[in-house]
Design goal:
With 194 residues, this protein is an all-alpha fold. It has one domain. Helices cover 62% and strands 0% of the residues. It contains 7 helices and no strands. The radius of gyration is 23 Å and the shape is elongated. The relative contact order is 0.17. The chain crosses the membrane at residues 21-39, 69-90, 102-121, 133-151. Keywords: Membrane, Transmembrane, Transmembrane helix. InterPro entries: Teicoplanin_resist-assoc, VanZ-like. It holds the Pfam family VanZ.
């Protein structure tokens, strides 16, 4: 959600670097918290069997009543939801297709959720549940769709001086041409001798 490094001049460039570094730091802190929360051994008298049938544990949670279902399903939705914002923030791109950004973020969130579930296979008291992967990934999607497009639009409007009114392909060209070394010189086309 920040601007690519080097696209700003002076203090704008430093602000971008700090914004991206904050994203990486928050991302790592969140992943450490999630790892501690989900991969620590639990002292429980019994555990349920692993669930590999999609939506089975969601149906079971709904059967427990609205309050318990909200707690369990809401917890699974919120566990990895911050990744929907932190992954693009750590990536530091403002001028990117919203669909590409969503696809990248969702894929990374799903892989992280799957890694957590696979890691739980060897942890006492933790149970593998395919519905956790579905709910965690849904949380990432919802957070990304609610926050990232709005933040990127704001950053495009005020983030990079003189860029906000240009079409996207011209923005990229202009940012490249404003690089410290200038644009790369090109040679005009020369015909080949027979």
């Amino acid at each position: 959600m920040g601007v690519r490094q080097g696209s700003g001049q002076g203090s704008d460039g430093q602000a971008v670097i700090h914004f991206r570094a904050a994203g990486v730091t928050l991302l790592l802190a969140h992943l450490l918290f999630v790892g501690w929360l989900t991969l620590r051994p639990l002292d429980v008298p019994w555990t349920a069997a692993a669930n590999f049938e999609p939506l089975a544990s969601i149906r079971n949670d709904l059967a427990l009543g609205p309050a318990e279902a909200l707690r369990r399903i809401g917890g699974a939705l919120l566990l990895l939801a911050p990744l929907g914002v932190l992954l693009p923030m750590a990536g530091g791109r403002v001028f990117v297709s919203p669909w590409v950004s969503l696809l990248r973020t969702v894929a990374a969130g799903a892989l992280i959720s799957l890694a957590i579930e696979l890691g739980q296979t060897g942890v006492p008291g933790q149970v593998v549940d395919i519905d956790s992967v579905l709910l965690n990934t849904t949380g990432v999607v919802v957070a990304h769709l609610l926050v990232v497009p709005v933040c990127r639009a704001r950053l495009r409007r005020r983030g990079v001086p003189g860029v906000r009114d240009l079409p996207r392909y011209r923005q990229e060209t202009r940012l490249r041409d404003e690089a410290p070394g200038g644009s790369t010189p090109t040679i005009s086309r020369v015909g080949i001798a027979p």
